[in-house]
């Protein structure tokens, strides 16, 4: 049976939960489209997150890899288009590291595009009744660090394996003391990720529809 690797992050920046892991851990060992989903928890650390990620990829030899992470302040499930070759951390990671203006892969390309059918995934999530959007930036923190490195690694080591990243809003309990911040229930996030995975497994060529931004 085929395997799908889906990753999420541990809590960071003083949080006690990370919405990505709260959803992803519920998908572990679920069967979708003839594939077994395997969940993997990544440390919120520059460098070490990639060690854990690559170990999981090499052990599982998955058909596709979907990474996820928290994007506090966003109101929709955000399917990322691109990872860029820069670490520029506004806050320190969970080991106190805070790289500034450092390339992730010295001499590597400036960016990689996700190889998952991102527009079809957004359409499927919306059809499930959950807000979703194409995101043009995964930031410059550990999420982008993982996205860029994942795509770089697959490009060179496993070009047949597709990969990408989805950002998830805060959970409702995380915004109780954050007036005006958006949130999304874990149940809705799980439904969104299921729709995204099913679409990624069943869609060879992405759909052609607008997903751009003016700013």
From TrEMBL:
Belongs to the peptidase C15 family. GO terms for molecular function: pyroglutamyl-peptidase activity. Homotetramer. It is an enzyme of class 3 (hydrolase). It comes from the Bacteria. One of its GO terms (cellular component) is cytosol. It comes from Izhakiella capsodis. It is found in: Cytoplasm. This is Pyrrolidone-carboxylate peptidase. Its main location: cytoplasm. Removes 5-oxoproline from various penultimate amino acid residues except L-proline. Keywords: Cytoplasm, Hydrolase, Protease, Thiol protease. Its EC number is 3.4.19.3. GO terms for biological process: proteolysis. The active site is at 80, 143, 167. It catalyses: Release of an N-terminal pyroglutamyl group from a polypeptide, the second amino acid generally not being Pro.
């Amino acid at each position: 049976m085929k395997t799908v690797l889906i990753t999420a992050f541990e809590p960071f920046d003083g949080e006690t939960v990370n919405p990505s892991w709260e959803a992803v851990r519920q998908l572990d060992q679920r069967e979708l489209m003839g594939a077994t989903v395997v969940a993997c928890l990544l440390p919120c650390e520059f460098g070490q997150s990639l060690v854990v990620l690559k170990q999981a990829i090499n052990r599982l030899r998955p058909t596709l890899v979907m990474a996820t992470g928290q994007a506090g302040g966003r109101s929709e499930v955000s399917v990322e288009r691109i990872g860029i070759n820069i670490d520029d951390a506004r806050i320190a990671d969970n080991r106190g590291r805070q790289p500034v203006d450092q390339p992730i892969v010295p001499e590597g390309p400036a960016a990689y595009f996700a190889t998952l059918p991102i527009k079809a995934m957004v359409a499927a999530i919306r059809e499930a009744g959950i807000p979703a959007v194409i995101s043009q930036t995964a930031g410059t923190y550990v999420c982008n660090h993982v996205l860029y490195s994942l795509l770089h690694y697959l490009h060179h080591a496993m070009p047949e394996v597709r990969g990408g990243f989805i950002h998830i809003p805060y959970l409702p309990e995380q915004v109780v003391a954050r007036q005006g911040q958006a949130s999304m229930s874990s149940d809705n996030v799980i439904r969104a990720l299921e729709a995204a995975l099913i679409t990624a497994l069943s869609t060879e060529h992405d759909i052609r529809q607008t997903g751009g931004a003016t700013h």
